[in-house]
Amino acid sequence: MLEIGKKAPYFEGLDENGRTIKLTDFIGKKLVLYFYPKDSTPGCTAEACDLRDNYQRFLSLGYEVLGVSKDSQASHQKFIEKYDLPFHLISDTETKILQDYEAWGEKKMYGKVSVGTIRTTYVIDEQGIIIDAINKVKTKEHTAQILS
Question: Is 44 a catalytic residue?
Answer without folding.
Answer: yes
